[in-house]
Design brief:
The chain has about 450 residues and is an alpha+beta fold. The chain is built from eight helices and 13 strands. It has helices spanning about 1-70, 115-120, 170-245, 250-280, 295-310, 330-345, 395, 405-415; strands at about 85, 95-100, 105-110, 135-140, 145-155, 160-170, 290-295, 315-320, 325-330, 355-360, 365-370, 420-425, 430-440. The two termini are about 40 Å apart. Mean pLDDT is about 90; it is low at about 75-80. The structure holds adenosine-5'-diphosphate (ADP).
């Protein structure tokens, strides 16, 4: 059980560590992408805007001349003749001087094959001051070309007579950014994998001192309770001797002290036995000896044992069990289990309360239900009460003797039989503990 607890904690620590690394790497990759791509493109943006200014200064007059020459006789003959275009394949920058009616008057290009696409993109576009557009052109062969476009209109007497468009091919830069990001993603995935291993290793290391301390504590509990058993039983037999010989001679006060001592001794013996039992169950030193036995006599005997305390609170017992109900399991352990549940049902019951014990059998299991009309258990604590040393709401449990061991032993016994134990409870109304113990298929007893 404790191994499971350590494994769970280790798993949680690893998960936490890995999630932190994942968040870190994702943010790192995202920030790198944003920073690198904006650094790269901001330079290109400056270039394409500067070029727009430059070409504007240089070719504004060309556009004015052309306009003055053509405005009288709208000569469209030059359309389609791009003999004024320069060709510089080594440059990434290009420009076109385009008249109002869409005619290319001058230009410098590096990839005539996409000229038509570019013209389509800028057709009708009237760039504002320093405006930059980012465009992607898909080529027939699946490749794509990324461009930054800018431009500057030329005016004469407040009418636009044409525009000078500039652009830059940033395909290579975009490609570099993409490669960089893919590489970062691959590295991140590798690091996430490594961080799982590292996290698992580190949390294992962190668990070692805890596990050691826990182990020492268990050993101490085991040794101490073992050592205390002998003096306690000597104490017990001495008290019995005194009681047998001297009881009549004791005065009223001494009798009271004597009875208190007996009570305290009983409590201590129970605690020590419980602790020793837990220590042995941790060391897997408890073996079950299963047999068939009749349940009703066992329950009657346990009720008799609980009666003195129950009568103080005027608690009634009700049973619902067939006389011949037999059950297969470790008799001693099952007696211990039912006693723990009955003892709690008495302890946490109210004045004039009731305790009901019902046993029934279906094809595969025996179900033992013990319900009380006591103080109940808050919902949020119901899952915790089976944990070792857990006591629900100390302020109200303190009134009752106990140390939070009982239900953890009960759970151990049920688990060892391959069964289940669960609780249904409403605060102030009562609690019902339901134990289900699997029975052999060829079971006998209990059937009529
Ligand atoms: P202990 O009774 O010694 O404190 P247990 O392990 O038997 O320890 O029970 C754990 C806690 O569960 C108790 O402290 C009590 O708060 C709660 N509990 C157990 N049984 C009942 C019950 N029948 N009614 C109300 N509370 C209960």
């Amino acid at each position: 059980m404790n191994d499971k607890m350590f494994k769970q904690t280790r798993f949680r620590l690893t998960l936490l560590f890995t999630s932190l690394i994942v968040v870190f790497l994702i943010s790192f990759t995202a920030v790198s992408y944003i920073v690198v791509s904006s650094l790269i493109t901001s330079k290109q943006k400056q270039q394409v805007a500067a070029l727009a200014e430059e070409e504007y200064m240089e070719h504004k007059s060309d556009l004015l001349n052309w306009h003055n020459h053509h405005q009288n006789h709208l000569d469209k003959g030059a359309n389609g003749q791009h003999h004024l275009l320069d060709y510089h394949p080594e440059r990434q920058l290009f420009y076109y001087v385009i008249s109002r009616n869409g005619e290319i008057i001058k230009g410098d290009e590096s990839f005539p094959e996409i000229r038509e696409n570019i013209l389509q993109l800028i057709n009708g576009w009237n760039p504002k001051n320093k405006e930059i557009r980012r465009e992607t052109i898909k080529l027939g062969n699946g490749e794509s070309i990324s461009l930054l476009l800018s431009g500057k209109p030329v005016f004469q007497n407040n009418t636009r007579i044409g525009t000078i468009y500039t652009g830059i091919n940033i395909t290579t830069q975009i490609y570099i950014v993409k490669v960089l990001i893919s590489v970062l993603c691959v590295i991140s995935i590798i690091f996430i994998g490594l961080s799982v291993l590292l996290g698992y290793y580190m949390s294992g290391k962190a668990m070692v001192p805890i596990a050691n301390a826990f182990q020492r504590q268990k050993e101490f509990v085991a040794n101490a309770s073992h050592e205390l058993r002998t003096p306690l039983s000597i104490f017990q037999s001495s008290l019995e001797v005194i009681e047998a010989d001297e009881r009549d001679k004791l005065g009223e006060f001494s009798l009271q002290v004597f009875d208190d001592m007996k009570d305290e001794l009983r409590r201590m013996t129970k605690l020590i036995n419980d602790l020793l039992w837990l220590a042995r169950s941790d060391a897997n030193a408890i073996e079950l000896t299963k047999e068939w036995f009749l349940l009703p006599p066992v329950i009657d005997e346990l009720i008799r044992k609980c009666r003195p305390l129950a009568e103080q609170k005027h608690i009634k017992f009700v049973t619902n069990i067939q006389k011949d109900m037999a059950i297969y399991g470790d008799k001693e352990r099952i007696i211990q289990l039912i006693f723990i549940l009955l003892d709690n049902a008495v302890k946490y019951n109210t004045e004039n309360g009731q305790i009901k014990i019902a046993v029934e059998r279906d094809r595969k299991n025996v179900n033992i239900e013990i319900s009380d009309t006591g103080i109940g258990i808050p919902v949020e604590q119901q899952a915790l009460i089976f944990e070792r040393f857990y006591r629900a709401d100390p302020s109200r449990s303190r009134k009752q003797q106990g140390n939070g061991i009982g239900l953890s032993i009960a759970k151990w016994i049920v688990d060892a039989h391959g069964g289940t134990i669960r609780v249904q409870s409403e605060e102030g109304k009562g609690s019902r503990f339901i134990v289900t113990l699997p029975q052999p298929a060829n079971g006998k007893g209990g059937e009529q």
